[in-house]
Amino acid sequence: MNIHEYQAKAILRKFGVPVPDGHVCYNGASAREWAKRLGEGPWVVKAQIHAGGRGKGGGVKLAKSASEVQLIARDMLGMTLRTHQTGPEGKVVHRVLVENGCNIARELYVSLVVDRNSSKVAVMASTEGGMDIEEVAAKTPEKIFTETIDPLVGLTQFQGRKIAFSLGLEGKQVGKAVKMLEALYTTFIACDCAMLEVNPLVVTAEGELLALDAKFGFDDNALFRHLQIGDMRDFDEEDPNEIEASQHDLSYISLTGNIGCLVNGAGLAMATMDIIKHYGGDPANFLDVGGGATIERVTEAFKIILSDRNVEGILVNIFGGIMKCDVIATGVIQAARQVALKVPLVVRLEGTNVEKGKELLAQSGLDIVAADGMADAAQKIVMAVSAKGGRA
């Protein structure tokens, strides 16, 4: 789960990380009044969407008067902001953050991520703040410093100083950086984060350190321990089908293709998408109904796939272990009848109660193509979609 910048800064502030004073606003008049309350300008007005690169797209602007804050906020709210992360469709701005400006002397980069290779948290730091870290890694990888943290010890002051020195900090700034890094690590662990990025971390002309922008990524499996963080979820920023899927405990991700996939198990889902691509098709989604799905959950999964107008065919690929093939078959039949299925449907079943499942499909009276094996299933759905004039 992702959250907005203003929410991220509220969390950081709670754990003692210095951030600029600011407030989220939903209309121009409110933005003007909050600017006055924050003190003398200048102020920064920042569009709040779940994407980076907002400044390049016109989503971050400086205002020198409260009236200018109002005008900028009014123009920004409701606009479709397009960045390299939103894609050409962009995202509609529903709220803005108004915060105090600061005198920036340097821009740095700091992030904490889960390092899968070491199974530890790693701190990444760079003097190239304000830039995409991927671009820095590609062009000047030597400018990225990485420090791995022992989970039994935590971030030590020695490591904090190493990171501070790598950023070119000196004097009192080193101590301030160590304190901030310790607070960031505490935040990361306490909130079950998957990623915590501060970009840029700025050094002001007065020598202070501020987290000028922040981005969180949380471990969805741990959100049950953080109800307040879960309440920060912004459904306006998410795909409606993905939201609907989450209501039924389904793992669903929209893609750009035209062949819908209904699979049990994330590994099988990935393999199914790969083999569809191998035979010239293009997956429209990733949908995992899980190992213990009910008939009702399978039915809802089918409906979600068909709600995507780009879907021109569906491949059901089930390996029944805990999940029984006859349950999947019954769910597919119910869903196909409820939605009046009009696109090709290929079903491959294997495992527990497979013969009973195939029998149910055969007796359903529906136009369902049976497949033997993944390769056969992928070829049949790609051929069926192509025969109807869809994209191969």
Automatic annotation (TrEMBL):
Question: Per the UniProt entry, what is one GO biological process?
Answer: tricarboxylic acid cycle
Q: Which Gene3D superfamilies match?
A: ATP-grasp fold, A domain, ATP-grasp fold, B domain, Succinyl-CoA synthetase domains
Q: What is its EC number?
A: 6.2.1.5
Any Gene Ontology CC annotation:
cytosol
| One Pfam family cited in the UniProt record for this chain | ATP-grasp_2
Is Magnesium among the key words of this record?
yes
The cofactor note from the UniProt entry for this protein is: Binds 1 Mg(2+) ion per subunit.
Instruction: Provide the reaction this enzyme catalyses.
Output: GTP + succinate + CoA = succinyl-CoA + GDP + phosphate; succinate + ATP + CoA = succinyl-CoA + ADP + phosphate
Q: Please list the residues that bind ATP.
A: 46, 53-55, 99, 102, 107
Ranges for domain ATP-grasp: 9-229
| Keywords, sorted A to Z | ATP-binding, Ligase, Magnesium, Metal-binding, Nucleotide-binding, Tricarboxylic acid cycle
Cofactor entry? Mg(2+)
- What GO molecular function terms would the record report? ATP binding; magnesium ion binding; succinate-CoA ligase (ADP-forming) activity; succinate-CoA ligase (GDP-forming) activity
Q: Which domain of life is it from?
A: Bacteria
Give the pathway annotation. Answer: Carbohydrate metabolism; tricarboxylic acid cycle; succinate from succinyl-CoA (ligase route): step 1/1
Record: residues binding substrate: 264, 321-323
Question: Binding of Mg(2+): at which residues?
Answer: 199, 213
What does the record give as the function of this protein?
Succinyl-CoA synthetase functions in the citric acid cycle (TCA), coupling the hydrolysis of succinyl-CoA to the synthesis of either ATP or GTP and thus represents the only step of substrate-level phosphorylation in the TCA. The beta subunit provides nucleotide specificity of the enzyme and binds the substrate succinate, while the binding sites for coenzyme A and phosphate are found in the alpha subunit.
- What quaternary arrangement does the UniProt entry report? Heterotetramer of two alpha and two beta subunits.
Similarity remark: Belongs to the succinate/malate CoA ligase beta subunit family.
NCBIfam families the record matches? PRK00696.1 (NF001913), sucCoAbeta (TIGR01016)
In its UniProt entry, what is this protein called?
A: Succinate--CoA ligase [ADP-forming] subunit beta
